[in-house]
Specification:
Layout (H helix, E strand, L loop, with lengths): L26 H12 L5 H4 E5 L14 E4 L4 E2 L2 E2 L5 E3 L1 H4 L14 E4 L8 E3 L6 E3 L3 E6 L5 H8 L5
């Protein structure tokens, strides 16, 4: 059993989402968590409202122009990739179920699914735009500088 590790966690010791996946509870992650918990800190949710993008099936409305619709693959190295943009109609954009995914200038986007997990980009325009559920949306609360927060989210300790 050389190279194997085991960690025992009580049910009451699970983090808020009650994750039980082994990778989350690796010894090195628990050590980092212990160090961070002993430090003065602010919860991410105290600095941002946190959401994700659209969960509706709207691919039938994809088009070559209209309102920009970002996917996880559009987030790369702090920039929003424009190589193969997708758009949706105004009619789809204004649906009540789409409102949660509407983006605002200074939102921080993070890819949360697939091989590019953790990529970050900033929304830098006031234009109407939205995104898929493959992206997390961090909307800064008053006093939070989104560019600084984006750099922090790319660090090991975010």
């Amino acid at each position: 059993m050389s190279g194997l590790e085991a960690v025992e966690i009580s049910l009451s010791g699970l983090e808020r989402t009650k994750r039980i996946d082994s990778e989350f509870y690796k010894k090195e992650n628990l050590i980092v968590l212990d160090v961070l918990e002993r430090m003065e800190h602010t919860l991410l949710t105290d600095s941002f409202t946190v959401s994700d993008g659209n969960h509706m099936s709207i691919s039938s409305d994809f088009r070559l122009d209209g309102i920009r619709y970002y996917r996880g693959s559009d987030i790369y190295n702090f920039f929003i990739e424009d190589a193969s943009p997708i758009f949706i109609s105004e009619k789809t954009f204004i649906l009540q179920t789409m409102k949660r995914s509407h983006l605002k200038k200074d939102d921080v986007l993070m890819s949360i699914v697939g091989a590019i997990i953790g990529n970050i980009a900033l929304v830098t325009t006031e234009a109407k735009q939205t995104c898929s559920c493959k992206l997390a949306i961090f909307r800064p609360r008053a006093g939070v500088e989104s560019a600084v927060a984006a750099v922090y989210l790319k660090t090991r300790y975010a």
